[in-house]
Amino acid sequence: xxxxxxxxxNVLDPGxxxxxxxxxxxxxxxxxxxxxxxxxxxxxxxxxxxWFEPTKGFAMLIGLWNSAIFAGGITAILINTPGxxxxxxxxxxxxxxxxxxxxxxxxxxxxxYSAFGGIFGTLVLMFFSFPLARFTIGFGATEYFALALxxxxxxxxxxxxxxxxxxxxxxxxxxxxxxxxxxMLAMKRFTLGSVYLIDGVLFLPVMIxxxxxxxxxxxxxxxxxxxxxxxxxxxxxxxxxxxxxxxxGEIRSSLKLTVICAAIGTVVGAIPAAGGDIASIISWGxxxxxxxxxxxxxxxxxxxxxxxxxxxxSVLGGxxxxxxxxxxxxDAATAVLIGSLMMYGMQPGPKMFTEFRPFVINIIxxxxxxxxxxxxxxxxxxxxxxxxxxxxxxxxWVSVCVLCVVGSFALNNSYFDVLLMxxxxxxxxxxxxxxxxxxxxxxxxxxxxxxxxxLRRALVISQGDYAIFVQRxxxxxxxxxxxxxxxxxxIKGRLFPAGGK
Amino acid sequence: MHKTDxxxxxxxxxxxxxxxxxxxxxxxxxxxxxxxxxxxxxxxxIGLIVLGLNSAQVVLWLKGKGEGKxxxxxxxxxxxxxxxxxxTIAALVGLLVLWRLIFFExxxxxxxxxxxxxxxxxxxxxxxxxxLLVGLIHLFFARFLYIQFTL
Lengths: 501, 151
Known about the structure:
The complex is a heterodimer of chains A (501) and B (151). With 501 residues, chain A is an all-alpha fold. In chain A, 73% of the residues lie in helices and 1% in strands. Chain A has helices spanning 2-11, 14-32, 38-49, 54-78, 90-99, 103-136, 141-159, 163-177, 203-222, 225-237, 248-253, 255-270, 276-290, 302-326, 332-343, 352-355, 357-380, 393-410, 415-433, 438-461, 468-471, 473-495; strands spanning 180-181, 188-189. A two-stranded antiparallel sheet of chain A has the order 1-2. In chain A, strand 1 (180-181) and strand 2 form a beta hairpin. In chain A, helix 2 crosses helix 17, helix 6 packs across helix 12 (255-270) and helix 9 crosses helix 19 (415-433). The longest helix of chain A is centred in the first third of the chain and has 34 residues, at 103-136. With 151 residues, chain B is an all-alpha fold. The longest helix of chain B is centred in the middle third of the chain and has 23 residues, at 41-63. Chain B is flat. The chains are: A mainly alpha (501), B mainly alpha (151). Chains A and B meet through helix 8, helix 9, helix 18, helix 19 and helix 20 of A and helix 1, helix 2, helix 3, helix 4 and helix 5 of B.
């Protein structure tokens, strides 16, 4: 209890609160601008936060993350374009509501239910992460190895249409993680005689390059003037927004389904690699089946919008539970957050709850506070937020390019890091064009060290006997699940030969 | 499936091969008495996996007779995009080179002015935006965080 009180004291520190507010406001802008994602924002901002104490730095990232996911719904409602992938289901009912002159109400529902979902997910994180961490405290090298492998294959399997390409991307990331000092024998490997590579390929510049510059280059290549013109004409429509706050009757009618969908979102978020887009689509589809008014779904249903927004923010609590307790990211944004924690010298996983327990409590409380903060800011600025959409995409491209350069340099004052970021940006662009997801690559780079160190540590314990990985129950189960994940397309093909759906 | 899958698989295989050759030199099976495999063991195994996965990719490409989604195909309205992409990349290279020759803020300002001009933004907007962005970067990073952009 004393830890929690201390945590409340920490997060209510004016400095921390200021950073959280900056993160929430920044996330609101990033989420509302089509083309900018929460992942990109966190990747670019991470080196900046390194200059502040961890609680302040993480307050900014947590604020940005939570706020960007909710703000993605603003463009979904006003111009039928999701600001972030997680808000794709918000277009189904949000845009029709806007066209009916209920845009303000749609924006209000987006804010209120996003905050509700976020708080629900955070409460799950608060109550379940500590028992889960206690269960995983006995994990040894074999379990860590199996866990890292499982996380990687899950992400590779879900993040892209092609499992094979996801795996290639992930394993290439692992291969690159072997550059630098060998974790067991302290030998220099693949450094090409360069002092810059002794510490390995730094994941932060690579992260900024792949998610920041790579994304911008891809947007420039894919840019469609006709789509831009249509978005511009939609912005000019300028329908009346009407009231923002829903009445009690509107809230009560969808209360049961929103609680269920908040739970669905949290569970989906806890599954590695399943993000807000999957959660909100599942929630929207399921609640349409359970609803008393399924015919209204897709035509401007307040309930439909509420369930999709509640689930896309409840995902965050679930994703953070998996990330903090097991060290496995729930999506690309949490993969980047793992990188941020590692930058502070913390390895997410069971040890986080013993070695950095006060910091974990701070993170949980910051999540709660971020949701309350964007609830207030979001409601106050709901109508004004539509102005953000007027920002020209080209302005965003120029700004992101400069910020990628500055961000990659800021961490170590190293020009080499900037060159690394630039190279990663070009590779990130080619990855996207050729159908390879950058997420598994980054994850491989992050988890590669953990994978190798624990594999070799386990082999030391077993004196070279590989049977150790199947003799320990947890690692055996994880390896079976990993194999099943990889074999699922084949199994699916056999079980459902006609289409496999 | 993409039409470029063969080329991309080839690139990944080349990377894997380079790592495997390097790993071989570090020692793969050179176990010490406590069961620790050599420094080359892990990269060799991972290189082998990357090689295997890309071989499967090549087989799939051959089975599909090289058909698939073109990676770089563009519609008529997008025909100017490659030029915009190359100009952006070239401008970034220019920024990195100029940074070494003059100070960062000036290089960044020139980059912003050039890119906004290329994208057809108005002169006044271009000037105000570029000065504001670089000014804010200077204030926040150089003055507040004491990050020296001097190389």
